[in-house]
Design brief:
By secondary structure, this protein is mainly alpha-helical. 90% of the residues lie in helices and 0% in strands. The chain has 2 helices and no strands.
Length: 61
């Protein structure tokens, strides 16, 4: 696992927690902020996954 995968998954988890807390507290701003943070984490971890895939392909050649 590379740092982008780890950081992305951490941000994704923090965003999910914030999103759920916003729903529970009926705080739309927190809910939206959590959703954005979660999606940014997904993008970052996806980028990290792609980097790993490229690295694996290059190592196999």
């Amino acid at each position: 696992m590379n740092k982008d995968q780890v950081k992305g998954r951490v941000e994704e988890a923090k965003g999910k927690v914030k999103e759920v807390a916003g729903k529970i507290l009926d705080d739309k701003g927190m809910e939206i902020e959590g959703n954005v943070q979660k999606n940014i984490g997904k993008v970052q971890s996806g980028y990290g996954d792609a980097k790993e895939d490229v690295k694996d392909v290059l190592e196999d050649d």
